[in-house]
Design a protein that fits this description.
The chain is mostly helical. Helices cover about 70% and strands about 0% of the residues. It contains 18 helices and no strands. The longest helix is centred in the N-terminal third of the chain and has 17 residues. The radius of gyration is 26 Å and the shape is elongated.
C-alpha cells in the first residue's frame, strides 16, 4: 500500500518520533497523505490502506494518534521496528475501524518479518470483525500455509465453497493441501475444476502441467497447459518456463526445450543455472545419448527446502531418472600380461 512512500522517509519519520518531535512527525504524515491519497474502499470491508483510516484529512494533534499513524507508515519499510509500536496502538484502540486498520498493519508487518503466528492471529481478528473478507482470508491462508496448518487451510477453503460452489481460489487452496498430503488424484481433480471454471491463472495452468509431468503423462494436453501458463505470464516467469522446458525435453523436442530453458535462466537474477535447471540439462543429455553426463547433472538437483513437497519436486524427477539409468558403467581394466 505504501510503495510510493520511500524507505528514507520512513527512517526520517522514525527519527522525529525518537526525538519526541511530534510536530515534525505530523508534517511527514500530512505529506504521506498527499502521496497516498484516500482509501478507495470497495466491496471488501477490510481496508486496502490502513494509513488512510488512521490519518484522515484534518487529523488532530493527539500524540497517540500521531505515533500510531506513524507506526503504520513505518511498517512498510521498517517492519521489525514498527511492530513494537503497533501492538500497544492496537491494544489501546477503541474504535472498530481503527482496530481493523491496526490489525491489518500488524498482519502485513508480521508477514514481512516472518512472524506467521502473529500474522494468523491478526488475520483471525480481521475475519471475526469482517466475516467473508477476501483480503483477510488471503492473509490468513498465507499464514496457515507458512505454519503448516493444512487442516485449517482446508476448512477455510471449504467455508468459501459453501458460500460459492464455483470459487476458483478455494479450489486452488484445496489442490495445494492435497499436494501436501500426497493425494495427487485429488489435487489434479481440484485443478481441473479451476480450469473448467474459465478463471484459471498462469499459476493454475502451470501447477496442472507440472502435476501431469510428475505423473508421467506428458502428452498434448500437458504441453497445452504449460504453453498457456507461459503465454499468460508473457514468458517472463522462471518457474513457469522451467515447467515448459521440462515438458519439451520429456517429449524429445530438444531445440525448444533448450530455447525455453535459456529464457528461464534470463528471468532469474544472475542468469546462472539453479539446482532445478540441471534436471532439464540432464534430460537433454539423455536425448543426445550421453547418459554419463546426464547422471552428473541429475546429481546436482537438490532436495526441496520445504518439508512435504518432495512428491512433486524436481528432485524426485531427477531421482527417477537416476534409477532408470542405473549405475554408471565403468570401463573394465585389461588383465596385466604375464611377463
Amino acid at each position: 500500500d505504501l510503495h510510493s512512500f520511500p524507505t528514507r522517509r520512513s527512517s526520517d519519520l522514525l527519527r522525529h518520533l525518537q526525538r519526541g518531535d511530534l510536530a515534525g512527525a505530523r508534517r511527514w504524515l500530512d505529506w504521506a497523505h498527499e502521496d497516498l491519497g484516500n482509501d478507495a474502499g470497495g466491496a471488501d470491508p477490510v481496508s486496502q490502506k490502513p494509513f488512510a483510516a488512521l490519518w484522515p484529512p484534518a487529523a488532530g494533534d493527539d500524540a497517540g494518534e500521531i505515533r500510531c499513524a506513524a507506526a503504520v507508515l513505518l511498517a512498510e519499510g521498517e517492519s521489525a521496528k514498527a511492530l513494537p509500536l503497533l501492538h500497544p496502538c492496537r491494544d489501546a484502540a477503541g474504535d472498530p475501524a481503527r482496530r481493523g486498520a491496526l490489525d491489518l498493519a500488524l498482519d502485513l508487518a508480521s508477514a514481512a518479518t516472518g512472524r506467521y503466528a502473529e500474522m494468523e492471529e491478526a488475520s483471525g481478528r480481521l475475519l471475526a470483525a469482517a466475516p467473508g473478507s477476501e483480503r483477510a482470508e488471503r492473509l490468513q491462508a498465507q499464514a496457515l500455509i507458512s505454519l503448516d496448518r493444512w487442516d485449517d487451510l482446508r476448512n477455510l477453503a471449504e467455508r468459501r465453497l459453501r458460500r460459492s460452489a464455483d470459487d476458483a481460489w478455494a479450489r486452488e487452496l484445496l489442490a495445494r493441501e492435497a499436494l501436501h498430503a500426497g493425494d495427487l488424484d485429488r489435487a489434479e481433480s481440484e485443478l481441473r475444476q479451476v480450469v473448467k471454471s474459465g478463471r484459471a491463472t498462469a499459476n493454475d495452468f502451470n501447477e496442472l502441467a507440472w502435476l501431469l509431468l510428475q505423473r508421467g503423462r506428458v502428452d498434448g494436453e500437458a504441453l497445452d497447459f504449460g504453453q498457456r501458463a507461459a503465454t499468460l505470464s508473457d514468458y517472463k516467469q522462471g518457474p513457469i518456463l522451467h515447467t515448459l522446458a521440462c515438458l519439451y525435453a520429456e517429449q524429445g523436442r530438444t531445440a525448444e526445450a533448450y530455447r525455453i530453458l535459456v529464457q528461464s535462466l534470463g528471468a532469474k537474477p544472475g542468469e546462472a543455472p539453479g539446482p532445478d535447471d540441471w534436471y532439464v540439462f540432464g534430460r537433454l543429455a539423455e536425448q543426445y545419448g550421453l547418459p554419463d553426463v546426464a547422471r552428473k547433472y541429475y546429481k546436482r538437483v537438490l532436495p526441496p527446502e520445504r518439508p512435504g513437497s518432495e512428491a512433486i519436486s524436481t528432485y524426485t524427477l531427477a531421482a527417477r531418472r537416476l534409477t532408470a539409468l542405473g549405475d554408471e558403467k565403468r570401463p573394465q581394466r585389461r588383465a596385466a600380461r604375464a611377463l
